[in-house]
What we know:
By secondary structure, the chain is an alpha+beta fold. Helices cover about 25% and strands about 25% of the residues. The protein is built from four helices and five strands, in the order βααβββαβα. The chain has a five-stranded mixed β-sheet with strand order 1-2-3-4-5, with helices on both faces. It is globular and about 45 Å long.
Amino acid sequence: MNYQIINQLNEAQISELVELYKNEFWSQNRTYQGVVKMLAASDIIITLVDEEEKLIAFCRVLTDFVYRGVLYDVIVKPSYRKMGFGAKLLNEVLNHPQLKEVENIALFCLPEMMPFYQRWGFTDIVKLELMYRYQ
């Protein structure tokens, strides 16, 4: 299947992303306005779209471009899952010219997704504790 990589979403694609978020427990309360604000504040956006420029997969990165980066919101449209698009997305992130030299890239994932991310060298062996402060 043909696809292309884009780093900025149009209004229709933002709406598609909001709909994708509504199907996931971790993002189901996101709104269009909130997603627009989130996209504007993200350092890198990587999106895969089909021939009709419909969203296939999405992720974003917050980073200082030297020492730290955090990969967020890795999501593949359900009808495109198990077709290798998650792998294509991760390859694009980790080979992105602005991220290749970043010392440490972190991400959040469910335990069942850990083997997927381990293929790119992500590990759960961390010498720090993660703390949260909720609003």
